[in-house]
Write a structure and sequence with these properties.
Elements lengths: L2 H27 L33 H6 L3 H8 L38 H7 L8 H9 L1 H4 L13 H13 L19
Helix pairs in contact: 3-7, 5-7
């Protein structure tokens, strides 16, 4: 055999030996056993078999009862999250999302001059559906769950009291605010 080949093979084997030795030594020194309990478990929400399109599970408390004690001033603070994509003043311009002035009881996907997603247009059933209190409540909780395929990238307002405050504030964004629902009435079913 050639002496250069012997030196090359020897260098290779020496390198492998050194790397394996360092690996074994570092495993012994820096060994970290698996934790008994995970530090942070990620739990994925399971769907109930495709009940999209507004058939989401009802909130724990009906929106009519929550609105009876809602605070529109607190809702104005919650609305600040919305102002990056929406305006709320009369005649205000559309941004990434439509202007929300007089949104309560307005037909869904009907604000003039705004280009709605196909999913929102389908959900509106040609203008037959309106942004009533129940629709607003479900949509603001999880927009993509209530209207699958919507272009609205907002994750939602999870706390029902914050949602009620926000809806109470949205109600004030009107020249003629919609009447509040009767808290004693049964909640309307969503379609």
């Amino acid at each position: 055999m050639n002496s250069y080949v012997n030196m090359g093979v020897g260098a290779f084997l020496g390198t492998v030996f050194v790397l394996m030795s360092v690996s074994i030594a570092s495993e012994g020194i820096f060994h970290a056993p698996a934790p008994e309990k995970e530090g942070y478990a990620i739990v994925a929400e399971e769907s109930s078999g495709g009940t999209g399109g507004g058939e989401a599970a009802a909130a724990a408390t009906p929106i009519a009862q929550l609105l009876a004690s809602a605070d529109a001033a607190k809702g104005e603070a919650v609305f600040k999250k919305c102002t990056s994509c929406h305006t709320g003043e009369s005649g205000g311009a559309n941004k990434v999302g439509p202007n929300l002035f007089d949104v309560v009881n307005r037909p869904i996907a009907s604000h003039e001059g705004f280009s709605y997603s196909a999913a929102m247009k389908d959900f509106s059933k040609g203008g037959a559906e309106h942004w009533d209190y129940d629709h607003l409540n479900y949509f603001l909780e999880a927009p993509k769950k209530h209207v699958p395929g919507t272009a609205m990238g907002f994750a939602g307002v999870k706390k029902e009291t914050e949602r009620a405050d926000l809806i109470a504030y949205l109600r004030t964004l009107s020249a003629n605010p919609a009447p509040l629902p009767d808290p004693a009435a049964a909640p309307a079913p969503t379609n």
